[in-house]
Specification:
Elements: H1 2-8, H2 17-21, H3 25-37, E1 41-47, E2 52-59, E3 67-75, H4 84-99, E4 103-109, H5 113-121, E5 125-133, E6 136-147
């Protein structure tokens, strides 16, 4: 699903399909296995009973960080505008709250209106920080934050 996400919306993510498609099956298995045991990260998937429709990851950089980072948000095109992403945001926020974090932060490309509307509707506001998208520096990402 991660590769589908990167192929579907290249400008929404810091990494690229070309980069991640090089990784062997073993790498993906190890990543999933490690993540399933880790306490500092979590990936939620949306499953409608017939298949996986979306995903979002939360990452708590260190136990002393007051915020959790949300990234890798993606919902497959046929499942959009049905509240899937809103549910994934809620799941990451709930997980972050459980860790004792005070806020959830994310970076979103400034031209990604759908994602910006989504995050605004979930209570995120811009922090004012921006940075170039690593693989396309002409595009800026803006940081948004929601207090928990
Ligand atoms: C952005 C994305 C995750 C939204 O997923 P989704 O499941 O369709 O979003 P939801 O149905 O939960 O939408 C929740 C709210 O977000 C806003 N929203 C979502 N998509 C929107 C769109 N295309 N245009 C305007 N507002 C939108 C709306 O306020 C919506 O509420 P409403 O449907 O009641 O009006 C999805 O379009 C996607 O995967 N895009 C490509 C990847 C991407 O951009 N990821 C974000 C990386 S930061």
């Amino acid at each position: 699903m991660r590769l589908r996400a990167l192929a579907d919306t290249p400008s929404a993510f810091g990494s690229t399909f070309a980069e991640e498609n090089e990784r062997p099956e073993e790498w993906w298995r190890e990543r999933a296995e490690l993540a399933s045991r880790a306490v500092d990260r979590v990936t939620f998937v949306a499953d409608d009973g017939t298949g996986l429709r979306g995903l979002a990851t939360g990452f708590h950089e260190t136990p002393t960080h007051e915020h959790v980072h949300l990234f890798s948000m993606w919902v497959e095109p046929a499942a959009r505008r049905a509240g899937v992403a809103r549910g994934l945001v809620a799941a990451v926020c709930e997980w972050a709250r459980g860790l004792g974090a005070h806020a959830v932060r994310l970076d979103v490309t400034v031209t990604n209106d759908a994602a910006i509307r989504l995050y605004e509707s979930c209570g995120f506001v811009p922090t004012g920080r921006t940075a170039p998208l690593p693989h396309t520096p002409a595009l800026l990402e803006q940081e948004m934050e929601r207090a928990l």
